[in-house]
Glycerol-3-phosphate phosphatase (Cyprinodon variegatus), 306 residues
Amino acid sequence: MSGSKCTRLAGPLVKQLLESVDTVLFDCDGVIWRGDQAIPGASQVINLLKERGKKVFFVTNNSTKTRKMYAEKMSAMGFNVTENEVFGTAYCCAAYLKTICKLEGKVYLVGSPAMRHELEAVGIQQTGVGPDHVSGKPIDWANVPLDPDVKAVVVGFDEHFSYTKLNRALQYLLQKDCLFVGTNRDTRLPLEGGKAVPGTGCLLQAVETAAQRQAQTVGKPNHFMFDCLAAQFGVERERCLMVGDRLDTDIMLGSNCGLKTLLTLTGVSTVAEAQKHQESGCAERQGMVPDYYVESIADLLPALQG
Ligand SMILES: [Mg+2]
């Protein structure tokens, strides 16, 4: 196999790479679909990989869907997938609090109904989702009522994020031993036609700035997401491939965990960006250089069909 990085994956190299792995991790948006549109050929690739005996998992930083919601979306698009193959940050956050932190107490949740659902599924109570209101005139911000059972502040994507929530998160984090966990640090969610919306990273940074504390994040590029699935399914990292469209999250996760990495060009990042990281000579940026790249994951099809 080629020793140089950022190699175009084509010809006999495809089969060679696939033979060298037992497990393949896929990011979702920009890799197997774009929004609600499946990438042409993606479902065949996933289904054939599984037919060839590969373990396939989906790792996504999106915290607005439960595992079940993902599995349903994928099934509707023709992917052969079960919910225990999906590792989203809503689920991983709950798993982290349960298995690593061994949290005893409630969560003050800045997040979505999906996060509430995944927390409840592992038996963790939370303060609820939706707009947070305080009453009183003038409002005594430093003395808003707090729930004495809250032992953790968790931040994910929340379209009801507000000063009230920011302040309440701060008041909890000022308390001794309050845990602070975030789903992910993606600052911007790119959309079609050059459009974009603010990502969870913006909300998390606001809370971190107020609290003067760093949150522990569970999403890519943090290794927890991989640890979580490796522990459940006995994955051997040397024989595992991470496929993604973002250098700073997907490819970085693969590098952080010692996996082989494949960049697909149907999403956010470009080969030119990867080459810039490679040529920078900066050690930290080498983690954002993939081993291989393809135009689309459909480029894997011929090797799987043959
Ligand atoms: Mg993506």
